[in-house]
What does this fold into?
Amino acid sequence: MRTLDHTRKIVQGERLLSIYYTAGYPTLESTLNIAATLEKSGADFLEIGIPYSDPVADGPVIQESSQKALRNGMSLKVLFEQLKPLREQVQIPVFLMGYFNTILQYGVEKFCADCQAVGVDGAIIPDLPLYEYEEMYQPIFEKYGISNVFLVTPQTSDERIRKIDALSTSFIYLLSSNATTGKQLQVEDRSEAYFARIKNMGLSSPIVIGFGISNRETHQKATNYANGAIVGTAFVRVLGKENVAAADISEFIASFK
Amino acid sequence: MSQYQVDDRGYYGPFGGAYVPEMLYPNVEELQNEYQNIIQDPSFREDFVKLLKDYVGRPSPLYLANRLSEKYGARIFLKREDLNHTGAHKINNTIGQILLAERLGKKRIIAETGAGQHGVATATVCALKGLECVVYMGEIDIERQAPNVARMKMMGATVVPATSGSKTLKDATNEALRDWINNPVDTHYIIGSVVGPHPYPDMVARFQSIISEETRKQLVEQTGSSHADHVIACVGGGSNAAGMFYHFLDDEAVNLIAVEAAGHGVNSGESAATTALGREGVLHGSRSILMQTEDGQVIEPYSISAGLDYPGIGPQHAWLFKSGRGTFVSATDDEAMQAGLLLTKLEGIIPAIESAHALAHLEKMTFKGDETVVICLSGRGDKDLDNYMKYFGF
Ligand SMILES: Cc1ncc(COP(=O)(O)O)c(C=O)c1O
It folds into this structure.
């Protein structure tokens, strides 16, 4: 069985490259193949998006990929079915990222149990607040050894960040700015000052920066201050190209190295 | 504290809360910390009451509809929110929220709108206060509601088409939330109903509670008692109903009836009858009852009335439904249209099609003796003339 300690060790690395993509996009059956290709190409860990009809934290590119995935027939049920052979093909950490309602309807306990069964390491649920997690769901996540990843933004207070740090079992997801997904990171003094402030807090959890990381330059900037950075929209754009092939994926990953 | 009002965690029974991404947490937290202090402050009360009186035209009349009463064999009062400035109850909320936004030092206002009534009410108060106003409206609704789009523009608002998803109210709400995520510091989001993360449902209900506060006083003046046997309101998100019910909630002798839009029929596949068709779920920041697929994808509702085709209801209503305090019923397009025409013929009042849903329920009630009924006439029918004309072929 996979353990969270193992996952945590991996995300403690340096200049990690993590990739987000939407399950069931561009085709229903592409989910697992993409994961395997990403690992081969050198991605360090993955976030697989659970498509949702109303993704309020996402910009147009990821919204469209979600809609397409839903039309393709993707759902959590289908996804867990597809992920059954995950650990025969993929060894790097895998997180599922999705909105709370789809998980609530699936059943939070069943979700955690199925994550454990297929070898998913954790979940990123942007609209599940800290308070509700602690009050209602933490014991379930712990029972199945599933890490719940919290977001931190430039507006999050230090006190709240410390609390998040204490609750985090894999990494803290640091948003590059207050924005929906797909905005190019403005690598300006302001964001660097913010990254530095977080770095200097001496948190015990690894930090991974996401939102607005689209190329080698932004990835390097972000990982000057964090263990890794997550690329989402830029990769989903690649998947949106006609007849996208494994070579396109490896080429994209190589462009970050 | 009433068991039907929000608790100090932001919940109504199991419903409510603030299910927002971390990006919105500081905004929502600021509101949670400040809203009660601000709206209970005497200077706020004074400004609010004065604007409601001098600008909106409150108190709105409580009108004993004689010929309607005769027809149904009950004493039927209409709470005339249709006579408010801009033609609906929506302005009660936007006046309250613009005063709040001012006190929070916000410079920019955003809102979502379906039919355009809340958008117009928001553009109006922004003109009144000279604040920048951006209204998100589904691309399809922009086409359907051209006069309201023109009104908003005349008042200086920018109307931004929501082109994502189904391009209607729920997507306009998503776009407004995305705007707020991207503009967290200077912007206040004026939500148009008793939905959204805590404290919005409570805040909007408090601003709308003027409806029942006045009603109870007016009932005393006109009947010698503040009692009503039945209080009826239509429910889209539920703000006019929340305001209409507010001061009756703890008076269990009052039957509170919420009328949802059944569209072509509850089981037709084209309906907005949330409590009949929905399950518990999370949308737009709160846990409530929601029309959704088995997988938790939100279903696009349908009603002839653009103000009622929302896939959820506010968390307080979900609690009134679940606890049994409220009676939730529905009216179809046809029933509402006939009720709208009936009121026009009997009383010379053309109601908004939303409000006509509340009136339609009278057909299904039986009254014994001299029962008192209050119906919230949430808006006027001017905006719906096109629809009435098409439907009846005038
Ligand atoms: C006249 C009128 N009544 C009712 C509604 C429904 O909203 P709510 O349920 O929040 O009162 C609307 C919404 O646009 C409206 O314009």
Notes: Chain B touches chain A at residues 9, 17-23, 25-26, 164-165, 170-171, 174, 177-178, 181-182, 184-185, 279-285, 290, 292, 294-298 (CB under 8 Å). The CA atoms of residues 212 and 245 of chain B lie 6 Å apart. The first strand of chain B starts at residue 11 and ends at 12. Chain B has two domains: 21-51+90-204, 59-88+210-392.
